[in-house]
Model the fold of this input.
Amino acid sequence: MPERARGTGLAVFSVAFAFWTTMAGTTTPTPLYPLYGDEFGFTSFTVTVVFAVYALGVVLGLLVFGRLSDQVGRRPVLVAATLLSVGASVIFLLAENVAAMLVARVVSGFSAALVTGAATASLTERLGQHSRVKPATVALFANMGGLACGTLLAGILADVGPSPLRTPWIVMLVLSVVAALGVLVNGESSTHRSNFSLQLQPLHIPGEIRSDFLRSAMAAGAGFAVLGVLTAVTGLFLGTVLHESSHSLTGLVVFMAFACTAFGQLLARALKPDTALPAACVGLIVAAGLTATAMATSALAPLLVGAAVNGLATGVAVGHGIGGITTRSAPQHRGASVSTFFAVLYSMLAVPAIGVGVLIRETSLRPAGETFSAVVAALSLGVLLSLVRVGRKAA
Done:
């Protein structure tokens, strides 16, 4: 095991803070999309495209730069990730059109892709597997906590700040600069390097758990699809259907979804492997029903509860999938298998959001949301029925 870096406590905090800040920057635009729509005169379809570009940037970044921290070290990659977060904040701060927003979202996607692997590995090396606080738990709350808090913080700042499209980005810019300085001064955690090579990370579905891998990916992907749509169009729903102008409320809905996703991953550790995924599928179906109810009745409560239930179910499915890969797949392919798993999830985060944008353009928000909820429920039900068939055969 690599030696611990000096000043472990401060170093661990600096890595976790960099992870949190970078991920927070990726969800900062969520409550601001309606304001950007008014400012730049674009439609709800454009919002979904702007959001999807970020997710596709994450997928490309994971495939191209997934092993970079193993090759050049954790600190350079963490510094690069936080500087990219700085760059995205600056572009958003100066943005005057949709093209600038698209560039900023791609930069955000790359920053998230870089920080995820490097920060997780660095936390493992700095804390060690025998630490009272598990590295995986710190990484989980830095990751999902950043995603959750970024949108809530931006919503609050947009409501109380002097300039709703500037204040959130000034705050994120300052936080990202502090994060970059923190990882820069706290040393390197890895003592090993591999040869540098910039090439696509090969995708790999572990043959020994292929069926379980695919079911987990489909269930978790359905949940991620809901997270993506919530992130892209919650502000539109609250503004046009419920006539709620509070940006903090938009941030709260998405905050609940991502926060519950983190708790769902913790819950997955307490559930038996043969019950975790069925429970996740049931939760996704219930959440889809609640979301459809919110659309049909123009009610806020079902949307809030649906976001929380979807987050919990998604977290359980993700935790089950990652647990299966790390404990039951061949060690030499685990890294590629995890990258493949998250490539599926982030693809599901992006593509359905664009589909919903097309539906909104062709119909309106309510039927688009109801149709999307039905598709999510059908996909989750399909996975659940597949699990029931497998259980009967095993019995």
